[in-house]
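Exercise: predict the structure of this protein bound to pyridoxal-5'-phosphate.
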Amino acid sequence: MSALYGTYARSPLAFERGEGVRLIAQDGTRYLDFHAGIAVNALGHADPHLVRTLKDAAEKVWHTSNVFTIPEQERLGQRLVDNTFADSVFFTNSGAEAIECAIKTARHHFFAKGEPDRYEIIAFTGSFHGRTMGTIAAAGNPHYVEGFGPPLAGFTHIKPNDIKLVEAAITSRTCAILIEPVQGEGGVTAMDVEYLRGLRALCDKHGMLLVLDEVQCGYGRTGKFFAYEWAGIEPDIMAVAKGIGGGFPLGACLAKGDVAKSMVPGTHGSTYGGNPLACTIGNAVLDRVLEPGFIEHVNQMGQRLRWHLQQLQQRYPDYVVELRGKGLLAGIKIKDSVVVRDFTARLRDDHQLLMQGAGDNVLRFLPPLIITEADIEEAVGKIADAFAAIEAEGDKEHVTA
Ligand SMILES: *Cc1c(COP(=O)(O)O)cnc(C)c1O
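Solution:
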């Protein structure tokens, strides 16, 4: 019996080392990692620059708290400002905390403007924003909210990708729209660029804030540094995490200067958030992500992945119902009779391919951003082999039945 909470339906598989896109289990079996710790290991495993940085940092200051100036945090914040829409950054340890900060920033902005009743946020079905009390209320997934007492008030949920529904949901109390440009957990649903532009226009028209959750789709994953760039728009606030620390727990809430300016001493804080060790690693991750050609490589690999998935769909039209996502946050909706949870277990155990499922029976591709086309071919080949094996088993059952 494990001493741990039973919150995760864990596989017994445990890993000892990682090398790039490979994870090596305790028994020596090598796995192809198209899971990347749920989009966290953007640079794969044991990236030499990250390893060197961590070893050096280990001998310096790990933690001081935000009572003191943290030069590595100042530097990472400035670099994020220099490369995004934002003027101001708050560092956290996770994605959920980045969303919490985004919600507090949006609401407090209107409070400080003398509009304290303007706290309602329009959010979307199929979204995922984390597991804190605030973020489960924000996403509104009934499975995650039920049993935990009254949910945090002030969220309205509508279906995404329909601008008329958003218009109809706006009231005098609406302060913000909160959305993932590409929904990850919910089923790898990419928002249309026209829709994102429409949301921006509605926010401008009604004086509301556009809050993006780029915890999963940001940091290069879709082939731009942030997914909002595809739509040619800018948010007012954005939550970032997952890839930003390359495996070290780190998150950030980015905001425009006028939006963040009411967040003065006493309004928010975190003991660990943005500590020297985390931000040293964060700077090293950013060194790699901003290297010339890095994001262009992701973009190319995203296109190659799409092409290979189209081929797979042509070969197995019964199994591949729909292709979804953007760049290296991709998904295939597989036919209902193949439950994605069983399918990822099969890929893992029979084909040594690590993948994650998502809502709506979607098989999710979240490889490290450093993958090559050969890795893509290998992964798609393994998936094809798994489909073929299921088909063969089905035929056998048919014959014996
Ligand atoms: C993972 C995720 C979160 C929550 O991040 P944690 O680090 O698990 O708290 C929030 N939003 C999105 C879109 C995510 O994918």
